Amino acid sequence: MEAEDSTKEPEKPLGDAAPAVAEGKGDTTRVAEEVEATGTGEEDELLAGIEKQMLDYDNTIGLIQEGIETIEKTFPDLASEKADDDAQYDELSVYVGQVDYNASAEELQAHFSHCGQVVRVTILGNAYRQPKGSAYVQFETKEAAQRALLLHDSTFKGRKIQVMKKRINVPAVQRGGGGFRGRGRGRGRGR
Questions:
Q1: Of 38, 94, 149, 167, whose CB is crowded by the most CB atoms within 10 A?
Q2: Which portions of the sequence form the region Disordered (predicted)?
């Protein structure tokens, strides 16, 4: 025969909901409400404060979502239109590397004119507006841009130029984060 443990607290009945829950029917929220009602006054105040904060957060989230909807209605597809335009211009443009530093936009336009109608020539420069030795040439059609790629390794002002398809610019926000850099040896006091 087993000895009963006298240190055990007697089980408290959970009210009318306990038999229904034990049988698998009934509302478990009613049981939870009855258990919560047995808490101390300090716990009830803390719980009420947390519930108030949650309501405030819900209201703030609702206001933010309404603001976002208003902005989307006011400026529909503004960002996507710009991205589409940029992608279209990237298909019409070629990158030209190893350009002579004394070359002008007009000379580059004349060099690429037999490929098709040149819309714009942009010679890249540094902060002091000195040429970097590269340029972008934008054409009217994709076919003209494709023909311009055939001028890769052609000679322009005594230099072999590199003509490549303009790469699509991906902003840093969309590219993803940088890789993990270890913080081991080599940092600190020269050790």
A1: 94
A2: 1-29
Do 146 and 102 share a structural domain? yes
| pLDDT tens digits, 30-43 | 545 555 555 577 88
The residues near 94 (Cβ < 8 Å, ≥ 6 apart) are: 136, 137, 139, 145, 148, 149, 163, 164, 165, 166
Q: Is the residue at 10 inside a domain?
A: no
Domain that holds residue 54: 16-69
Residue in this structure with the two tokens 């030209």, named with its chain if needed: 96
Residue 21 is predicted with a pLDDT of 47
Give the distance from CA 19 to its chain's centroid: 53
Q: Are residues 44 and 88 in the same domain?
A: no
The CA-based diameter of the chain, rounded to the nearest angstrom, is 108
